[in-house]
Design a protein that fits this description.
Elements (H helix, E strand, L loop, with lengths): L1 H13 L3 H19 L4 H7 L1 H22 L8 E3 L3 H7 L19 E7 L1 E2 L6 E11 L2 E11 L5 E6 L10 E5 L4 E7 L11 E6 L4 E7 L1 E2 L1
Length: 219
């Protein structure tokens, strides 16, 4: 399936030139039709109508499911808004019981440990918004997307990556992308060594294509 990833990356490179390319394609199609008509190609197709219909059916049977999977997400938008885990954690009363173990230096306070700003991989694979790495309880972390928007695509997932520039070996899968727009959260598995990770990314797992990256900066 890497060929589709290569095609998607090519589409990203060509996206800024989409209008002149579209105009050129239409002109080429028009020129082919004008050149073909005097040669009677339309009559040839008419004489072999059954074969032409069979070929068209086969092409559509392949193109429609493939196009639905790979292309339809590009214009499908979804939105989700979840509660801010920092506000939720701050609203929970501190444990003042005799058995509670205080954090070093005093009572624990929920905090934003790191922040980042999303940028798209290219003009086609746009991405924007903020990300926060929030410590909601001692050693418990949540990734928070804020004012987020990204180009949709097939098989998109959210990862913590060891690289500030995108996907790298050792990236941690946090789950599938919940929505293309909005504000939502991902719990980080307990015991994760966060010092190993330098960015939050949106990654197309099926076709190995980067959509958006947010390098993390410690606050």
């Amino acid at each position: 399936m890497s060929i589709f990833g290569d095609l998607e990356r090519i589409a990203g490179d060509l996206y800024p030139y989409r209008w002149p390319i579209s105009a050129a394609v239409l002109l080429v199609i028009a020129a082919v039709l004008v050149a073909a008509y005097p040669r009677g190609w339309h009559r040839t197709i008419g004489r072999h109508r059954k074969a032409a219909v069979l070929i068209a059916v086969v092409v559509l049977a392949v193109a429609i499911p493939l196009g639905t999977y790979t292309l339809s997400p590009l214009w499908t938008r979804t939105e989700l808004n979840e509660a801010d885990p920092l506000l939720v954690a701050q609203a929970v009363p501190a444990d003042t019981s005799a058995t509670a173990v205080p954090a070093a230096g005093g009572a624990f306070q929920p905090r934003v440990a790191s922040t980042g700003v999303f940028t798209g991989a290219d003009d086609f694979h746009f991405g924007r918004g903020q990300v926060q790495l929030i410590e909601t309880a001692p050693g418990s972390y949540t990734v928070r997307f804020e004012d987020f928007s990204v180009r949709n695509g097939p098989d998109l997932f959210v990862y913590l990556s060891p690289s500030a520039d995108g996907y790298a070996d050792g990236a941690l899968n946090l789950g599938d992308l919940k929505a293309t727009d909005g504000a939502f959260n991902y719990e980080i598995p307990a015991g994760t060594d966060l010092a190993h990770f330098r960015s939050v990314i949106v990654w197309c797992k099926q076709f190995t294509v980067l959509f958006a990256t947010a390098p993390l900066v410690t606050t």
